[in-house]
Amino acid sequence: MVISHPLALLNILQLANPALPVGAYSYSEGVEFLVHCGTIHNQATLEDWLRAELSYGSIRLDGAMLVRGYQAMIARDWQKLVGWNAWLSASREAEELRLQSWQMGRSLLRLLRDLQPALEPIPADLEAECHFAMAYAIAAVHWQIDLPAALLGYLQSWAMNLVSAGVKLIPLGQTAGQQLLLNLQPAIVTATEVILNLPDTHLESCGWGLGLASMAHETQYSRLFRS
Fold it and tell me: Which end of the chain is less congested by CB atoms within 10 angstroms, N or C?
């Protein structure tokens, strides 16, 4: 993958930055409960969980919706954009995961409007319940980021957020967290290649573990992360 223009590289670095003010840092996507019950308890178990999610989990569906949202934006096909966004809502197993994605999507759209007042109008049906993956696709098209780079940045930012959560919760040292991110790089590249070529007939995941963890997190007595 080659990023042909320096501005495109700077744009994807900004969009994938954990400091992007969309609230990603406030969510653990089930990791907090999994640490609480001992399923995740060290660097190796966190890495195993993240690898499994990249291979079989709902992050694959998020990535697939980013791809379809990007393609719909390029084609100016608002009906498809709204339709795939609704499909993603229906695929969420837990209310916590759905609300997280909506909140982050709304925040990113609001940020885009503040940064780029000339942003093309967004369909009204997306305003209140735009998923983060769809908002990310809209931002990537607007900032002229190639689709493979946008998807790679999306998966990397997802991994960075959950590794950061693990560093705080397990806890892990900062060096261990960075080593974990390095270890995940081949899996992120592979997931990007698979998702880019995923047909509509294979939009599936094995995310029941994440769904159960997120449902349990909603009622967990003591929490650092938002539910």
Answer: N
Q: 88-118 pLDDT, tens per residue?
A: 999 988 889 999 999 999 999 999 999 988 7
How many separate domains does the chain show? Answer: 1
Which residue in 149, 166, 168 sits closest to 63, CA to CA? 149
Instruction: Go through the chain and tell me how many residues it has.
Output: 227
Q: Which residue has the tokens 């305003």?
A: 127
* pTM for this model (two decimals): 0.94
**90 residue type, one letter:** A
Q: Is residue 125 part of a domain?
A: yes
**Does the pLDDT at position 2 exceed 70?**
no
Q: Is the dihedral of CA 85, 88, 94, 98 positive or negative?
A: negative
Q: What is the spatial distance between Cα 168 and Cα 157, in angstroms, rounded to a whole number?
A: 17
Residue 187 resides in a domain: yes
- Report the CATH number at residue 16: 1.10.4190.10
Instruction: Name the nearest CA neighbour of 70 among 142, 11, 137, 150.
Output: 137
Tell me, what's the pLDDT at 167?
97
192, with CB counted inside 10 A (0-12, 13-18, 19+), is: buried
